[in-house]
Model the fold of this input.
Amino acid sequence: MTAGIIIVVGDFIIVVDQLPQERGERFILIKNMMDSNTQSCVNQTSCLRVQYTRLRKWVWRILVCFCIAYTMTVFMLGYTFVGSKVSLILGQTPQITELKNADAIVVLGGDPSRAFAAGEVYQHGLASLVIVSADTDRLAYVLKLCGVPDERVLIEDDAKRTVDHPQTIQQFEGIGPKSRLILVTNRYHPARVRAIFRQAGYQSFQVYSIDYEWMLGKKSSMIGFVDANYILYELLAWLKWKTIG
Done:
């Protein structure tokens, strides 16, 4: 009986009883196939590594470009005259003495300073009703501190975005596109509010922001890092509204 031969190739063990010429040829064929498969795996691994390296480079390039663009934009808005001009365009509203009587004051949910401004408008006797749209609890509390009676305040918390306010406030009787409204907001929000309400069909409304008087009183033409970011956010919000609503 011919002694068997044990051949180890990588992780495979092949037992051959005898190794005549034809079996030797089969063994060589099997070994060549295994070598080919091993080489194929090596090639695939190398290909994946190359793709990963390229992807990582592109990600880094995108991040670097984003950082450069962000830095340049904030610098331009915050530390040149451009930011001051843009801030006045976005935040322009009448002063409180220029406002006309209205059916209701609408506080657009968000910064509590909007509720303080709405309380000031109410105390000037420009409207007998205040609607709080979103962030109702804290804004209603601020209105109470400003001397607005609870029975003069209507609240709704359905609005999640600026674009929602024109629809959500219509749930109150007598409030609609033909109503005379004073929309109270702050900072650089007024221009977008004005455009959104006009698109929704509102005609007789005014937008008020107490911050505009502060903007007019600023002596420096540089608005700084924080306000530059507020403007950048507002510009991106405009872009989002114009593209996807």
